[in-house]
Write a structure and sequence with these properties.
Elements: H1 2-27, E1 34-36, E2 39-43, E3 48-54, E4 57-63, E5 66-68, E6 71-75, H2 82-89, H3 106-117, H4 121-134, H5 141-157, H6 163-168, H7 176-190, H8 199-212, H9 218-231
Length: about 230
């Protein structure tokens, strides 16, 4: 029985590692210049091989490595989220900036605010992007390319971008909740100095910690189910 369980977990980990590698590949940037932390960064000529630790083991992927003009440490971005596309496309709307406002940030800040707080804002921004692409007013080559990428992203994902409604329903709209959960459930307990863990013990403890930190009465419900099954 134990051997069968171990073989099953090996196969599950193989499948999980393969799918995670495919996802990381799909979410990689496209090698074009990006803006990170207010700095313009460009990709190296070739992708770099990266070893990424995942819950299923180490995954080997090729990633674009970015640096600014000063060199230094590399940045390995995932694909932009919606706000990244909006900020990248903002140059095409610099002419709309009111007098006295910063042309490099005003339009992007306004658009991101609408996207976060108004229902249907994503569809509205998509219409604005597409209208600007057909506008007779000149757009520089780099700004047009960024605007086209933003329009494509919004066109492909607009049905999943109703952030105002999600927020009103109490649903998270970013990855922060997931990242914080990983730190609370996993890293805080299993990554202390000198700790080493076997897979089986880790799996059981992770389940218990997830129940203990879940909302509602799941921890007590678990014990009720255990005691009920023993009594039967």
């Amino acid at each position: 029985m134990l051997e069968a369980e171990e073989r099953l977990m090996v196969e599950v980990n193989k499948a999980g590692a393969g799918l995670t590698g495919d996802l990381l590949h799909c979410m990689d940037a496209d090698g074009r210049p990006i803006t990170h932390g207010g700095r313009r960064m460009t990709a190296k000529r070739r992708k770099e091989v990266r070893h990424v630790e995942t819950p299923y083991g180490c995954v080997v992927v090729e990633r674009w490595a970015y640096q600014d003009s000063r060199g230094g440490s590399c940045h390995y971005p995932m694909d932009y989220h919606s706000s990244g596309y909006v900020c990248a496309a903002a140059g095409a709307f610099a002419h709309e900036t009111p007098k006295g406002e910063d042309a490099s940030t005003w339009w992007a800040n306004e658009a991101c605010s609408h996207l976060k707080h108004e229902e249907g804002a994503a569809a509205g921004l998509l219409e604005i992007f597409e209208a600007r692409l057909t506008d007779k007013r000149r757009i520089g080559k780099a700004d047009r390319e960024a605007l086209e990428r933003a329009a494509t992203y919004f066109r492909n994902n607009v049905d999943r971008m109703d952030y105002a409604r999600y927020t009103a329903e109490g649903r998270p709209t970013g990855s922060g909740v997931t990242e914080a959960g990983c730190k609370l459930i996993i890293k805080k307990r299993f990554c202390g100095p000198g700790m080493t863990w076997g897979f089986r013990a880790t799996r059981h403890l992770m389940r218990l910690r997830a129940l203990a930190h879940s909302a509602g009465d799941r921890w007590n419900s678990m014990w009720d189910a255990i005691l009920t099954s023993k009594a039967a």
